[in-house]
């Protein structure tokens, strides 16, 4: 029985995935050659590939650029008041809405900037917030 279990485990964890893993490794090495990613520690490589997963949200507010708004405008104060009360998962959903990803690139939030802009619609009550993900602009009606 021990021999059977050993052979079965070897098949499941090694032999059965050998071809798919080789294909994955070949593609990975094409996009990220070994000589370039060996300079990273495993933790650093994970951040480069996945982005940061733990975020200090107050840094997000500090790096915002305002267009047609000022930091002390009522709309902006209300926005940040609501944002800081959101649970972690909802904040990540906002990040995905704004950028297309719920992760921050490798440098971290201290270097992440975005713009909150007033779309200046004639009737802001009939306009929903929207985002330009490429330019990282949140269009926030008054």
From TrEMBL:
Its EC number is 2.3.2.26. The active site is at 134 (glycyl thioester intermediate). It holds the Pfam family HECT. Keywords: Transferase, Ubl conjugation pathway. It is an enzyme of class 2 (transferase). GO terms for biological process: protein polyubiquitination. InterPro entries: E3A/B/C-like, HECT_dom, Hect_E3_ubiquitin_ligase. It catalyses: S-ubiquitinyl-[E2 ubiquitin-conjugating enzyme]-L-cysteine + [acceptor protein]-L-lysine = [E2 ubiquitin-conjugating enzyme]-L-cysteine + N(6)-ubiquitinyl-[acceptor protein]-L-lysine. Residues 1-142 form the HECT domain. Signal peptide: none annotated. GO terms for molecular function: ubiquitin protein ligase activity. This is HECT-type E3 ubiquitin transferase.
